[in-house]
């Protein structure tokens, strides 16, 4: 008799466990509970790799190991086509110096919270995704930086999963009367190499690492592109 009772109690317990998990899965399918695994992994990554809670402009001045590159030379500014072609070329060459097609990266972008503005993370990125299902793997949250609220979106993927050339062109065009445009603060983080790439606009971009030894070869190879105004600080940050 006692054995029958214990078996019955065990069945009830297992039934409750199964019912609990079935309920949780129902909530997840409805979107009432979200497990932000990507966001948690990203926060752990930038803190462990760069001792940062959030990324923010100007990234070069907020980082201990960094290079600031000039993309468009002011001497070419009178000819917009030549100027922008130089911007596109340099930004893409430097990106390829850091990222290989199979490299895993985080794409992170911030949009300032303004009244009436909706969260549209998939609307921003979908035109740049080769793998459309990736839009369902976004992390999204509201963050506070220097007293201002921003929407922050994080996507983890491979470089080959995104149309990076088009995306870099769109970032470069943000202050120009040229389409396409991507008017967001956007960062690319190489997970294995622990390098951050941030083009702030057509004028230039910052490259950050957690070790000067990683950036020294890049600095020597593209020394002529380094921003002259910050050259002394760049070399201090690299220990040169």
UniProtKB/TrEMBL annotation:
The cross-references to Pfam families, in alphabetical order and at most eight, read: DUF3885
In terms of domain of life, where is this protein from? Bacteria
Q: What residues does the DUF3885 domain cover?
A: 44-230
According to UniProt, the name of this protein is: DUF3885 domain-containing protein
Taxonomic lineage per UniProt? Bacteria, Bacillati, Bacillota, Bacilli, Bacillales
